[in-house]
Amino acid sequence: MTQPSATSNQLSESARSPKHRDHLAKSPRRQRKASRTQRRGGGHEQLLREIEQRRLPGQHEHLEPSGSASDTAESSPKRRAHFLHGPYPATHFGPKACILPNPTSVMHIQDPASQRLTWNKPPVNVLVIRKIRDESLVEPFKELCRFLVEEKQMMVYVERRVADDATLSKDEAFGSIRNQLCTFREGYDDISDCIDLIICLGGDGTLLYASSLFQVITRLLGSVPPVMAFHLGSLGFLTPFKFESYKTEVAKVFEGNAAITLRSRLKVKVVKDIREPPQQQEHNGLLPHGHTNNEAGKVTLQLQVLNEVVVDRGPSSYLSNVDLYLDGRLITSVQGDGVIVSTPTGSTAYAAAAGASMIHPNVPAIMVTPICPHSLSFRPIVVPAGVELMITLSPDARNTAWVSFDGRKRQEIQHGDCIKITTSCYPVPSICCHDLVYDWFESLAQCLHWNVRKRQARLEDVSDSSDTGN
């Protein structure tokens, strides 16, 4: 027995008289059936409306509407062709279950395709960072400063030791430009509230140095201005621009609407003189309450780190032995040469040399990589960006440990001290040359020499074919 089609039902319904249709509409049985249909069929639209109302500001709609692919592409203008992260997960599960709202989240992960630079006001103050002790960068530095001051009428800030360079002092033609430069000294002058744009000339170290100038210590705001890095150094993982076309590229950035990569940083605290260091762990590895209390110690250092925090054995010949905690729970004891806690940006630095994977800067994560571990079972791990890591010396450690932050501010860690690490709310907005995906893979291909043989073979084939044709 076949069921009547939906088309025939619609035709028969429309063929009936208006009085008969009104009678059916007023029927209690028909009303109950329509109510059930509305609850079943219209529940999806109601759920979408509720999710849209409860969605946090800045969150994008990624739910796939029903229908064919062509209908979806035409009726959903918000849908993108590709994205780095997965779709934003729905926060409602079934008719009544949902995720508890948490307004105190560490940081909001934005859709990478929507990360575009814009200016509320035209930029005025530009900080130019040049690699020190590199004579090959003197001429590019002078060209850039002359372009910014004379053609763009910008206020250019440079470090005092850069402006006092002997080569610049001897150049009389550059004297007028040099007298208009604003200078500062690291550690003495705070320029974080007046810089609109940062331009780096050199390698990856110049961008690390730019990040170190913008810290959160006594100020309420710790945001970093956009950074435009030109590749004029040894490594180019973080420097996508070529200096040959600097005028065109800088003009585009001043106009706005440039792609940026939000490079997350680590917020690090060094806590000294803990009163009650843990001797034994409670059930399931939970720390005693007194050990995680911030009042039990004194915060002697607080930094924002772009690449990594390295804990190593220092000058001692003994292996370092440190305990690693994740949100107050003991994860493991790391016995070896040390441990690296890095950002995705730092995954191509020391962590990659220690055997870790390379992660795109927009992936919200923290990497933990052991350095030559004594136990081969401990491999590099990746944890969510919002957790808090804590590193302390193990009670049975024979010697102290040493910690450094992006290769700087090295200091000794003794028994009772701890290092607390979590993701900072103030990333480094790095301006892209093309887009955030192409720039990253192109930097890997150039620095790691990917596909070099294939490129050479293709060039040889092209030259051979041209010779044969002649």
Verbal overview:
- This protein is α+β, with helices and mostly antiparallel strands.
- It folds into three domains: 116-256, Probable inorganic polyphosphate/atp-NAD kinase, domain 1 (Rossmann fold, 3-Layer(aba) Sandwich), CATH 3.40.50; 266-423, Probable inorganic polyphosphate/atp-NAD kinase, domain 2 (Tumour Suppressor Smad4), CATH 2.60.200; 434-464.
- The protein contains 15 helices and 21 strands.
- A hairpin with a 3-residue loop joins strand 1 (92-93) and strand 2 (97-98).
Properties at a glance:
single chain; alpha+beta; Rossmann fold; eleven-stranded antiparallel β-sheet; 15 helices; 21 strands; 29% helix; 25% strand; disordered N terminus
SSE layout and pairing:
Blueprint: H1 6-15, H2 18-26, H3 28-41, H4 43-54, H5 69-75, E1 92-93, E2 97-98, E3 116-117, E4 125-130, H6 138-151, E5 155-159, H7 160-163, H8 166-170, H9 175-179, E6 182-184, E7 197-202, H10 204-212, E8 227-231, H11 246-255, E9 258-263, E10 266-272, H12 289-292, E11 298-305, E12 308-312, E13 320-326, E14 329-342, H13 350-353, E15 365-373, E16 381-384, E17 389-393, E18 401-405, E19 408-413, E20 418-423, E21 428-431, H14 436-447, H15 452-469
Parallel strand pairs: 4-5, 4-7, 5-6, 7-8
Antiparallel strand pairs: 1-2, 3-9, 9-21, 10-11, 10-20, 12-14, 12-18, 13-14, 13-17, 14-15, 15-16, 17-20, 18-19
